[in-house]
Amino acid sequence: MSQKPIASPGLRDGDKEAQTRAQDLLRAGALVGVPTETVYGLAADACNGQAVARIFEVKGRPQFNPLICHVDGLELAQQLGVFDERAMALAAKFWPGSLSIVVPKTPSCPVSDLVSAGLDTIAIRCPNSAFTRELIASMGMPLAAPSANPSGKLSPTAASAVRDAFSTDQVPLVVDMGPCKMGLESTIVYCVEGQPVTILRHGAVLAEDLEDVLGENTVHEHQPDAGDESAPCAPGMLKSHYAPESKLVLWNANQPEVQETDAVLTFAAQQVAGMERALKTLDLSPNGDMAEAAANLFSMLRQLDALQPNRIIVAPPPAHGLGVAIVDRLRRAAAPRNT
Ligand code: TXA
Ligand code: MG
């Protein structure tokens, strides 16, 4: 495919074909390499949990980091997240462009819980690539897309880097719109009502650009806590990982039996002693499908947590493939919390 300027006003002849192919693949749950002005993204239909799970599988990410949701404009963005005045002002100024805004999820947000790794916030960006925006517009669906590199490798600023990094089985289509204009990932800001606007990741948009919009000394820097990612957060503090309210216990044969006040989360119909008397039992994937288990992980933990059980007892999947990330997240959630 020929190269063209990224900020071109609309699609050109021939691009329509790429758009239709990309759309068909995305609707079928496949991954597509898409251009943005920052770096190439590895896109999936954000509302399809199993497609999103494929992103983690293909990237070989050993952890479920939350992903950015790409939209074609503010209208779709507001279906996903709650924009306060500040978030509205930032979107008005920087979209389409290299700013991702983390906002609370709306109650009716259709995006899979796996996209924001169980958090009740969601990172949203409207990219400055006419192709990708029109793709999203034509689908009427947001695209979850991390940078299209295998975990631990550099972010790709050319389609060829994406093509080289993955097989066509993994990523059947990479849409080539030439080199990325910015070549640097988007800036990520946290913007939740009642809390200061906080930069989570520096990128193409600078702190002073944000303060030009929001006023001097309004933009804070995130100070990550000293390595302990399972550390508790005081109310109002930025939560970096989802953990259920209820105590989570990884099941092993030495554990006391399940009680009436416990909930059980199992995988591939594993049996846990006494589970028949549990408050409720859910199975991440009765057939032992890891992508299905990943897609269900956060929503099932939330469902069980909502019942306020004494404990959530989990029979985890084996730690291979996507199971590594699932078990990692369960271990973090089970780590002692000094609350
Ligand atoms: O420029 C970009 O941002 C590129 C292009 C493809 O859009 N995307 C990108 O995505 O860099 P990724 O997955 O490589 O980085 C996403 C970052 C992660 O560091 C993640 O922790 C953060 O966004 N993030 C996503 N959702 C979040 C949330 N709800 N709260 C806090 N951080 C979030
Ligand atoms: Mg990345």
What is the gist of this entry?
The protein is built from 9 helices and 14 strands. The protein has about 350 residues and is α/β, with parallel strands linked by helices.
Walk me through what this model shows:
The protein is α/β, with parallel strands linked by helices. It has helices at residues 15-27, 49-59, 74-80, 85-94, 130-139, 159-165, 207-214, 290-306, 323-334, and strands at residues 32-34, 41-45, 68-70, 99-104, 121-125, 143-144, 173-174, 187-190, 197-201, 219-221, 247-250, 263-266, 280-283, 311-314. The strands form two sheets. A ten-stranded mixed sheet has the order 7-1-2-6-3-5-4-8-9-10, with helices on both faces. A four-stranded parallel sheet has the order 11-14-12-13. Threonylcarbamoyladenylate binds at residues 36, 38-39, 41, 65-68, 100, 102, 116, 119, 121-123, 125, 127, 145-147, 185-186, 188, 200-201.
